[in-house]
Amino acid sequence: MTGSLSRYGLVSALLLIAGCASVEQPLPVVEQPTMAAELGGAWERDFARDDDVNATLQRAYRVLARSLSDQQRYGGAGPTGLPAGEAQSLVALARLVELITRPSVLKITQTDDRVLVHRKDDFSLSCDFSAQGTVSERSVFGAEYCAWQGTDLVSLNVLPGGLRVEHRFTVSDDGHRMRVITTASAPQSRTPFSLRRFYKKFEEPAPAYDCVETFSMKRVCSTSELDL
Amino acid sequence: MRASFLLLLLLAPAAFADEPLSVDATVLLFDDGLADVAPDDTVFPAVRRVEALLWSYSLSQQLRASAAFDIVRIAARPDDLTELTVTGKIAISNGQRIAVDIVARDSLGNAWLSQRFEAESGDDDALIAEVARSVEAEVLAKDTATIRRIREVALLRYGVRLAPTAFGDFLSEDESGRVTVERLPSRDDPMVARLQRVREATFLVSDVIDEKFRELGSEISNVYRLWGEYLAQNQDYQQENLRRAEASDSLYKEGTFEAYKRVYDVYKWHRQTVQEQDKLAVAFGNEVNPRFAGIDERVEELLTWMDSKNAEWYRLLEALFEVETRRETL
Asked: Cα–Cα distance between B74 and B53 in angstroms, integer?
């Protein structure tokens, strides 16, 4: 299982890099009559399997350096290393991805037409499939797109200035493990940065009280049936 | 109420006193307008439902305070008893603006007022006060004969429904709902006196329904006031988010972590503000929906009871009319 996930991850990451070439290109609409996978539940990080940020950054450096070197060689100039702006931007994207993927628990609620990924200290990723198209949210602050690609759920945030943050959720066949590849890209860096985080499903303990959120009384709890 | 009691009520003598020249009005629960909301609009159904009730409640309270009105009730559905019916439909309530379409129609079917009233969100008290002033002005502008006529027609319309054999000839109605008085009953017509008594009994039920809505309006007005305060605060947050977004470009050098983080954070704050609002709207619904469910059930019971009583009144009045006309013929 681990091996197949990793191989799939590499292919997926390469596809992501290719897919991020155009900044304004949203996710392609994939006709998906039902939810392609079940993501609902509570997920905790499996730190042992996570990508190491520094090692991943070094790999991205090497890929970028090789690419620049090839360009310069075919252009007639010798290799001169990474331009400072490129290096700085790649590190910046890596730090951003590391920051975004920090939460150790994800709580996902999934209904017939909606997936919500709750993350601590961040907004919830929202995928609403009730309407046509892939846009879940759009405003002057940015846009949020969602799509199923095969059995992967892909959430893409397109932000001002061309910054893009994409999350690709893949659940294992037995439904107990999940991999999330988070990729950030920006016009200032020709190479996007991707990081993989792995999660294990866990059962949350059943609440001891019957609680309901109210507006004026906040959370109201009772050991018996609530009568508001 | 048993049939024998109803019969006694109908046969008791009645005084036919001159009525004061103000009108009775019914404010129908406003249409929440949810059927016309586009799927992309951010409208919270529970909030709309509360607005529909509270604005109807507020309008009825303000009309009650005016000398132009005698009795003002809130009702869940139109009826034939009413001298002046005020209907409202929420056209806009999106956190920035509010608009209601108001129609005031008399018992003859004439629209006295058909107008959209608009204001900024949070100014609903002022908006409803403006509606009340406009409706009141229409009543005050009518002459005595018109007011007397709509009062008479309201009673006769009720009579046509309950005892069509006795009252059917007095009124005619065209396709658009306009009513014409063909003739009037004599002032000492015993059927009219009976009809007035039946109407008084029916009004008792209408008063109970009205009271239920008033209690609910009073109960949930505090929750709605808190919601209004929250919305105002939320708008401040969104303005602040906009200001931050506009300032982001010049704050940090392009391609740096600080610049990327700033752009991401501004989006994050915006989404968190929106998602908090969604969450609180659900909490608002959790708080008010059980109260609505309770009153819906009670009002439905009362209306069903009233319908069954109306059927009984119908049978008795028609029978009495037949007995009396047969006696006159003999």
From this structure: 9
- Cβ(B21)–Cβ(B139) below 8 Å: no
Residue B200 has a CB neighbour count (10 Å cut-off) of 11
H helices, E strands: number in chain B? 7, 7
Length of chain A as a residue count: 228
Question: E strands along B20-68, which residues?
Answer: 23-28
How far is it, in rounded angstroms, from Cα B59 to Cα B74? 9
Rounded to whole angstroms, how far apart are CA atoms B200 and A141?
Answer: 60
Residue partners of B99: CB distance under 8 A and separation at least 6: B90, B91, B92, B93, B116, B117, B118, B119
C-alpha torsion sign, points B214, B216, B219, B222: negative
Based on DSSP, count helices (H) and strands (E) in chain A, helices before strands.
Answer: 3, 12
SS3 A171: strand
Among A137, A163, A213, select the one facing B263 at the smallest CB separation.
A163
- Of A95, A99, A142, nearest to B267 by CB-CB distance is A142
3-state SS, one letter per residue, for A103-159: CCEEEEEECCCEEEEEECCCCCEEEECCCCCCEEEEECCEEEEEEEECCEEEEEEEC
Token readout for A128 is 């609403």
Contact B275 A160 (CB under 8 A): no
User: Which sign, positive or negative, has the C-alpha torsion A99, B238, B47, B284?
Assistant: positive
What is chain B's alpha carbon radius of gyration, rounded to the nearest angstrom? 26
Locate all alpha helices (DSSP H) within A39-105, ordered by sequence: 53-75, 84-100
Q: How many residues does chain B have?
A: 330
Among A130, A216, A227, most B C-beta atoms within 10 A, so best to mutate, is A216
Strand blocks (E) in B68-144: 69-75, 84-93, 97-106, 111-120
Chain A residues within an 8 Å CB radius of B290:
227-228
DSSP state of B146: H
Residue B292 to residues B207, B285, B287, B297: CA-CA distances in angstroms?
Answer: 18, 10, 10, 9
Q: CB-hemisphere CA count at 13 Å for A135?
A: 10
| Segment holding A161, helix H or strand E | none
Specify the pTM. 0.72
Q: Would the CB atoms of B261 and A123 count as touching at under 8 Å?
A: no
Residue by residue, pLDDT tens for chain B (330 residues) are 445 545 444 444 443 345 557 899 999 999 999 999 877 677 888 889 899 999 999 999 999 999 999 999 999 888 878 899 999 999 999 888 999 999 999 999 999 999 999 999 889 999 999 999 999 999 999 999 999 999 999 999 988 888 888 888 888 888 888 888 888 888 788 888 888 888 888 888 888 888 888 888 888 888 888 888 888 888 888 888 888 888 766 678 888 999 999 999 999 999 999 898 888 888 888 888 888 888 788 788 878 887 887 788 778 878 877 777 766 555
Q: Please check whether residue B266 touches A, CB under 8 A.
A: yes
Quote the CA–CA distance of B136 and B143 in Å, as a whole number: 13
